[in-house]
Amino acid sequence: MLNYVFASMMVLLFYVPAAAETVFIETGRDTTLIQDPFGANANGSGPVFFAGRTNQPENSIRRGLLYFDIARSLPPSAIIESVSLVLYESQGNPGMSSVSLHRVLDRWGEGASVSSGGSGAPSRPDDATWIHTIYPGTFWVHEGGHFVARVSAMQAMDDTGYYTWQSTSHLVNDVRLWLHAPEQNHGWIVIGDESTPQNVKRFASRENANPRLRPMLEVAYRFPAGKGDDESLPEE
User: Which of 29, 93, 86, 30 is CA-nearest to residue 60?
Assistant: First the structure.
């Protein structure tokens, strides 16, 4: 009995849990869905994207889309422990409002349309628009994007600056799904306060001239027992 207790104590004494690894992933695509019944406007390659409502009397809703290539950024056997998203709000109407992330259910495109304003620019081929997943011939199941109603994460926002959507069980589960089923990875939709006008938030996109302001996903993970840092990432 004493030998068993001693052996157990030695195992506990020398057991060192696997250290967590952290990877920072840049967006692979991002854009703004600009409310328009004809899908005439988009902002696929602009330096910013928007979420919330403008002060326009109609068609004032804006929603952002973000995609991160999880399968090419993490080892296949990674056990994901936490996920957080950092965005930079470069401009926004004053007042506190909440911005939520929801998992998107359809593949969408990022075209060559460019605008730094909330009204966007004429839609170009491959753009995601209010009615198109990929302009001009592929459409959302629902106008304004097809996504899970359940919120993956939410962040209250006020002034300009960096904001972090802290890790939640839903964010972690989203990324776990995308790691093991890449064909289901269509990113998140960013939805602001759409109940009142003139509360839209403007965020730096991946095309922003300042790389330090671009969206960034932080993922902490560990390897299963017996695996290690030498596990290779999927081939390009």
Answer: 93
